[in-house]
């Protein structure tokens, strides 16, 4: 069974174990597996992994059918594997690993960004200029790793099975000069090129749209599949960390917010015109 990434395998196993336990005692289940209730809680939230043997013990305790156990156990093995992003240690803080892991396996990505071009759409020089402004004062090596990581992430849009990307970007991002005029122009040209891809739905939210549904800031919705079950994760970043939302009501709220933003944004054709206008003004 392929979950797409170790992080998604961990989340898939976590969801299955949590749902399988149902209303049964967490204390009793943890005791059967030989660890604490706190550890079981972290496992069910996808914050840590457990051995395939412990996962099997829990599933047997919950009364899961033998054939189902055999179909789920590969998730426990996959969750222990190293993710490709772990080679970019200087660019992936602990709180960001979950995002990269789920984005790697996502079949659909929806993102709203009011200030900058989203990371998955950034050119190397644009990304470098932003990363260098990080107040944590990253080293030159960390900056380069961050640039390389963002470029690797773009393979999600250009690989053999590319994800669908829906991106709404404020018109302000088109005029914010990041990295100087040359870098600015190259980034705008890159957006025009990406907007031609059939799996990319890029829309600009123009100044003329006035008020909109996401005045509180940026967010990303990641849709992924584990064991033929659909899941969604909402990512909201703040200075030095991030919030991950999985509850159905929270996901629905952000889904409706994104739909509202798309409705208020320019059409894909007009978006290209807006980018071209910004590009001409940057010349």
From TrEMBL:
CDD domains: HTH_XRE. It holds the Pfam family DUF5753. It comes from the Bacteria. SUPFAM superfamilies: lambda repressor-like DNA-binding domains. InterPro entries: Cro/C1-type_HTH (IPR001387), DUF5753 (IPR043917), Lambda_DNA-bd_dom_sf (IPR010982). Residues 28-69 form the HTH cro/C1-type domain. This is DUF5753 domain-containing protein.
């Amino acid at each position: 069974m392929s979950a797409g990434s170790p992080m998604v395998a961990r989340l898939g196993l976590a969801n299955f174990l949590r749902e399988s336990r149902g209303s049964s005692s967490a204390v009793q289940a943890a005791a059967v597996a030989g660890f604490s209730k706190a550890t079981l809680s972290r496992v069910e939230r996808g914050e840590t992994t457990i051995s395939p043997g412990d996962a099997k013990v829990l599933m047997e305790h919950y009364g899961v059918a033998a054939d189902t156990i055999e179909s789920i156990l590969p998730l426990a093995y996959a969750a222990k594997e190293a993710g490709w992003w772990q080679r970019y240690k200087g660019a992936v803080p602990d709180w960001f690993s979950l995002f990269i892991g789920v984005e790697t396996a996502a079949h659909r990505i929806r993102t709203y960004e009011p200030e900058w071009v989203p990371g998955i759409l950034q050119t190397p020089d644009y990304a470098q200029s932003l990363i260098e402004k990080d107040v944590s004062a990253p080293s030159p090596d960390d900056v380069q790793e961050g640039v390389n990581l963002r470029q690797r992430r773009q393979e999600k849009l250009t690989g053999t099975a590319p994800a669908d990307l829906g991106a709404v970007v404020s018109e302000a991002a088109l005029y914010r000069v990041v990295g100087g005029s040359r870098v600015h122009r190259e980034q705008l040209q890159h957006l025009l090129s990406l907007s031609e891809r059939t799996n990319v739905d890029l829309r600009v939210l123009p100044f003329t749209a006035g008020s909109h549904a996401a005045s509180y800031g940026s967010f990303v919705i990641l849709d992924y599949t584990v064991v033929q079950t659909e899941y969604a994760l909402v990512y909201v970043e703040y200075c030095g960390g991030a919030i991950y939302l999985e509850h159905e009501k929270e996901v629905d709220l952000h889904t409706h917010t994104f739909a509202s933003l798309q409705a208020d944004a320019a059409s894909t054709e007009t978006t290209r015109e807006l980018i071209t206008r910004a590009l001409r003004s940057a010349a």
